[in-house]
Amino acid sequence: MALRSTFRLGLTALSFWPFLPIASRAPVYGRLVYELAIDRRVPWARKAILGLAAAYVMSPIDVIPDFVPFVSRVDDVVVTIIALDLFFEGVPRELMIEKMYTLGIDGRELERDMEFARRFLPLPMRSLARRLPALIEASVDVVRTELEARGFIETEETNLEANSA
Q1: What is the spatial distance between Cα 87 and Cα 84, in angstroms, rounded to a whole number?
Q2: What mean pLDDT, rounded, does the chain reach?
Q3: Among 37, 50, 66, 125, which has the minimal tally of Cβ within 10 Å of its Cβ?
Q4: Residues whose CB is less than 8 angstroms from the CB of residue 3 and which lie 6 or more positions away in sequence, other chains included
Q5: Quick count: other Cβ atoms within 10 Å of Cβ 97?
Q6: What is the pLDDT of residues 37-68, one digit of tens each?
Q7: Cα–Cα dist 137/45, whole Å
Q8: Euclidean distance between CA atoms 149 and 155, whole angstroms
């Protein structure tokens, strides 16, 4: 029995072997994500995607229960990869270059690492995730319109009327 568990541990370690180069650069990439997340030039919908992904990863409740083999173990990784990919795609190019230069990150290396991580995502899941930013913006617009109609939020028109009176 001990031999079998050691064998399993070896296979598990080998399956993560290709991720070691990315893992060694994770602190620098984490700093890049942090710097971009606090920058006001990044669209808020992209920041919301990071927040939703962080909430999902930290949540003890998973969409896919832990008793489902293999898939339940990688759902957090898939959510993280999708969130980072969508976040990086939404950052203005000039800002991304500025932050990567400041942190000393090679853009080609970052793109290679993201491409490597994307290979583990099914295409239908990735195409569905691309719709997420537009969905977040649309839902916030609906909520904002409803709150303005009910008088919970002041619009620019009510501010102008108050100033002119």
Answers
A1: 5
A2: 79
A3: 66
A4: none
A5: 13
A6: 999 999 888 898 899 899 988 887 777 776 77
A7: 6
A8: 9
Contact 102, 14 (CB under 8 A): no
pLDDT in tens, 67-125: 777 667 677 888 888 889 889 988 999 999 999 999 998 889 888 888 888 877 777 87
Tokens, residue 110:
């970052």
pLDDT of residue 6 exceeding 90: no
Token pair, residue 94, equals 């000039």
Query: Distances in Å between the alpha carbon of 23 and those of 9, 65, 116?
Result: 19, 26, 12
CB-based contact 82:125 (threshold 8 Å): yes
Both structure tokens of 22: 């990315």
HEC sequence for the chain:
CHHHHHHHHHHHHHHCHHHHHHHHHHHHHHHHHHHHHHCCCCCHHHHHHHHHHHHHHHCCCCCCCCCCCCHHHHHHHHHHHHHHHHHHHHCCHHHHHHHHHHHCCCHHHHHHHHHHHHCCCCHHHHHHHCCHHHHHHHHHHHHHHHHHHCCCCCCHHHHHHHHHC
Question: Residues near 118 by Cβ (< 8 Å), separated by ≥ 6?
Answer: 81, 85, 126
Cα separation, 144 vs 138, in Å, equals 10
